[in-house]
Write a structure and sequence with these properties.
Elements (H helix, E strand, L loop, with lengths): L2 E3 L1 H15 L5 E2 L2 H9 L10 H6 L11 E5 L11 E5 L9 E5 L2 E4 L1 H8 L5 H11 L3 E2 L5 H5 L24 H6 L8 E2 L6 H10 L6 H9 L7 H11 L18 E7 L2 H6 L5 E8 L4 E6 L6 H16 L3 E6 L6 H15 L10 H14 L7
Parallel strand pairs: 1-6, 3-4, 11-12
Antiparallel strand pairs: 2-5, 5-6, 7-8, 9-10, 10-11
């Protein structure tokens, strides 16, 4: 007997593995092995190792959440109040299921994202995809609150991490009354690729997965934090969604964490820095958009940023710094987008009505996709 975890149980396990190992250690299996694993998933009482699943963070005895499992047909279902059993009888795409450990399998990150996106918004789905193809992971504990459109963490339940920009320099009183700028996250290798997402999107033909198919077209690899994903989605998404349309600019639109190698003059102007990694680079405009989180406010970081920016200026690249407050200021974000369009030689013009209302809704939906409160 096998156990094939899926949906949010698989997503929690993916986040736990990326946090623990800085990469997803699961192994791929071929189409025949996928079919065998799914056909053998018959969740009898003695067939599921809940202890092993608890270690994988796919299930928690203290949670009210059910364990998501895939079964191949109605006859394989078993009455168990701890389980949420999903029938998937259609032939699966290549790489849809991965081997976790002995007799335990899970849907792949791309397949998991598709399953979790059912009847969800494009914005929320996009933030999940940006995480999975990016170099960061949200904590496993954020999975169900985000799925239920809740804020995570609540109150003082904040989970600290070394690379976190969450509360900025707000006072204790402000922290209670204001929304956070950033979400807890951990650095890791990407869990999937755009190509794998596109393959699953071709499989997801139901109207219930329309948001997934759209989000795959919008997603880009390379984001290093939820804040970068948010910045990309706000500035880059088409205006009809509520973005500022910068991904439609020539030369690839916007590139995440793009490397610029310095020439001799730039190296000298930067006091020896050989290259710069741009948070959000617009090649057509020659603009590097930098998210200025709390880590950039430290003295050593300010000195390094100043030297780095001098090097970029020597390369003829404009540096635009977006601070935490501006990440919720639509007028300011619009000005950044207008600047990139102007420098790229493209006219910035709205072709939709009620654009500000759409932008506010898009921004808040993106924030909800990482468990942050609306602004």
């Amino acid at each position: 007997m096998t156990t094939v975890i899926s949906h949010f149980s698989a997503l929690r396990a993916i986040r736990r593995a990326r946090r623990a190992y800085s990469a997803l250690p699961w192994s791929s299996i071929d189409s025949e092995q996928q079919a065998q694993a799914l056909a053998s998933c018959i969740p009898n009482n003695d067939a599921i190792d809940f202890g092993a699943l608890s270690i994988l963070d796919a299930w928690n005895e203290d949670d009210s959440e059910l364990l998501d499992l895939l079964v191949s047909n109605e006859g394989n279902r078993r009455p168990d109040k701890r389980l949420l059993q999903h029938i998937l009888s259609a032939p699966l795409p290549e790489g849809a299921i991965m081997h976790v450990e002995a007799d335990i399998y899970a849907t792949s990150p791309a397949m998991t994202a598709m399953l979790c996106s059912k009847n969800e918004s494009v914005a929320k789905t996009l933030m999940l995809l940006m995480e999975l193809v990016g170099t960061y992971s949200l904590p496993p504990g954020a999975t169900y609150p985000i799925a239920h459109d809740d804020i995570w963490p609540k109150g003082d339940g904040y989970e600290a991490t070394g690379d976190l920009d969450c509360l900025g320099n707000q006072s204790a009183a402000e922290q209670q009354n204001e929304t956070r700028y950033e979400q807890a996250h951990y650095k890791c290798e990407p869990a999937t690729t755009i190509e794998e997402l596109e393959a699953v999107a071709r499989f997801a033909k139901s109207s219930s997965y329309a948001s997934f198919r759209t989000a795959v077209k919008l997603a880009r690899a390379g984001s290093a934090s939820p804040a970068e994903s948010l910045m990309f989605a706000v500035l880059g998404a088409p205006m009809r969604f509520g973005g500022f349309g910068c991904c439609s600019l020539p030369m690839g639109g916007l590139l995440l964490n793009h490397r610029i190698d310095f020439d001799t003059l730039a190296v000298n102007m930067s006091s020896g820095i050989p290259y710069a990694i741009c948070d959000l680079y617009c090649p057509a405009a020659g603009v590097d958009n930098e998210y200025n989180g709390i880590g950039h406010e430290l003295q050593n970081a300010r000195i390094h940023d100043g030297n780095r920016n001098n090097g970029l200026k020597a390369m003829g690249i404009h540096v635009l710094v977006i601070n935490r407050d501006q990440m919720k200021d639509l007028v300011a974000l619009e000005a950044f987008a207008q600047t990139m369009h102007r420098l790229a030689g493209v006219r910035f013009r709205y072709r939709i009505k009620g654009y500000r209302k759409r932008q506010a809704a898009w921004l808040n939906a993106l924030r909800a996709g990482t468990g942050l409160a609306p602004v």
